[in-house]
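Treating backbone geometry as a discrete language has practical consequences that deserve illustration. Part of our work consisted of pairing the sequence of a single chain with a tokenised description of its backbone. What the numbers capture is local backbone geometry rather than side-chain detail. For completeness, the protein is quoted in full, as a sequence line and a line of structure tokens:
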Amino acid sequence: MRKHLLPLIPFVLLLLAWQGAVMSGRWSPYLLPAPERVCETAEHMLANGELARHTAISLLRVVRGFLWAFGLAAFFSVGSLLFPLLKKLDRGIFSVLQHIPPLALIPLLILWCGIGELPKTVIIVLATFFPIYLNMEASILRCDPKLIELGRLLGMGPLEQLYRIRVPSALPYILTGVRVGLGYSLRAIIGAEMIAADSGLGFLILDAQTMSRSDKVIIGIIAIGILGFLIDGFFAALSWYLLPYERRRT
């Protein structure tokens, strides 16, 4: 019981500090609404479907961009293994691109593609690709040489070694890259929705700020945190299920 209750203590302390700040009267309710007001607004937004609609749109965008990023990361990782020349060719361009903040490309993407779904997908792919790719490539290429030698002795070719030796041994690092990449993708899509969107949690926060609805801003921020927590929890559970040897260590 203590193990499950301890993580809740910071949230309780934060809520108490929030309530104390409101009761002190130092901030206007428009700047810092009371927790009960935020709860009432959240109930209203849940009842009319507004919060669920924006959350679902943001989640759909994240999933779409993540699938593209994961597919590209797998393609280049396997390509680097089977064709070493490809690794030498993409090393330079990737080293440059991974240091460019995806949100910096939004003005160009809006000029080229408008404010449809394509710019948001590109932003998510750029934010998610590199954490997944770097973990996937490094773990696949740096597989234990003894295991590879054993595979050769058993008559395995490069492709059979890939899916029977390299990928299983790299799975923990791949899942770690996925979890990190999804965190980046959620941050990127919220930023993109604040600049070039008419729906989603980022748009909800920006629209609420324009209307001086700080209660809605707080609800949007909390929704982002909960969504990220659920996504990360899903992949944590997936890791627990797929990696029984890691499960025994916990």
Notes: The mean pLDDT is 86. Residues 55 and 227 are 8 Å apart (CA to CA).
